[in-house]
Amino acid sequence: MRTHPIRFGAIPAALFAVAGLAGCADFERATAAWGPAALNVESPVAPAVQAAQTQPMGFPSFRSVPPALAAVDQRTPLQWSRTVQGLNREAGQLTTWAQENPSLAPTTTAAFNDSALKELKYNAADAPPVDQATQSEAFANSLRTQAAPPPAPK
Questions:
Q1: Which residues make Cβ contacts (< 8 Å) with residue 146, sequence separation at least 6?
Q2: DSSP per residue over 47-111, as a string?
Q3: CA pair distance 107, 99, nearest whole angstrom
Q4: What is the pLDDT of residues 97-135, one digit of tens each?
Q5: Rounded Cα–Cα distance for residues 79 and 55 (Å)
Q6: pLDDT reported for residue 140
Q7: Which of 28, 98, 99, 120 could form an S-S bond across to 105 if both were Cys, CB 3.0 to 4.6 Å?
Q8: DSSP 3-state assignment of 131?
Q9: Closest CA relative to residue 130, chosen from 139, 122, 121
Q10: 50: left (phi over 0), alpha (psi -120 to 50) or beta
Q11: 104 near 111, Cβ under 8 Å?
Q12: Which residues of 19-40 are buried (b: 16+ CB within 10 A; e: fewer)?
C-alpha cells in the first residue's frame, strides 16, 4: 500500500478555504452589496430613495478617472523623503534652540507672562484701581513709553 504525504502548504490552504466558506454561510448578507440597500420605509425620503435605487446606473471605468490636477503636488517619492527629512531636521534645530535659550522660548503662557512683566519692571502695587480712570491712563502711558522705541535721531 502506497501512501501520499500531505504537503505542508495544503493544510493552511484547506483552513483558509473552510474559513472563507464559513464567511459565506450568510449568503444573503454576503451578496447584499450587489442588490439594493436596506430601506427605512418610515423615513420621509424613502420614496425618493426607492426611485433612485430602481433607476439604471452606469459603472465608472478607469478611463473616466480625470487626470491629476496641475495644482496638486507632483513630487516623486525621493523628493517627498527629502522634504520630510528637511522638516525633521528643522524641527530638531528648533528644539535645540529652545533648549539653549530657555528664557527666550517660554514653555507656557504663564512663563511668558512672567518674563514679559519682569522686562517691563511691572509691580502690581503700582497699578491703580479700575475705577480711577486718570491714574489708569497715566499708568498705561508709562507702560507705552517703556514699550515704544526711542525717537529717531535728528
A1: 120, 121
A2: HHHHHHHHS--PPP-GGGSPPPPTTS----HHHHHHHHHHHHHHHHHHHHHHHH-TTTS-SSHHH
A3: 10
A4: 888 877 666 567 787 788 788 888 777 777 766 677 777
A5: 47
A6: 85
A7: 98
A8: coil
A9: 139
A10: alpha
A11: no
A12: eeeeeeeeeeeeeeeeeeeeee
Share of the chain above pLDDT 90, in %: 10
**Are the C-beta atoms of residues 49 and 43 closer than 8 Å to each other?**
yes
Residue with the larger pLDDT of the pair 31 and 141: 141
CA 19 from chain center: how many Å? Answer: 37
Mean pLDDT check: name the lowest of 8-12, 64-68, 118-122, 140-144: 8-12
Judged against a pLDDT cut of 60, whether residue 93 lies above it is answered with yes
At 53, the amino acid letter reads Q
Per the confidence metrics, is the pTM higher than 0.70?
no
CB atoms inside a 10 Å sphere around CB 77? 7
Grid coordinates standing for 11?
493544510
Grid cell in block for residue 99:
533648549
In Å, how far are 24, 25, 94 from 19, measured between CA atoms? 9, 10, 53
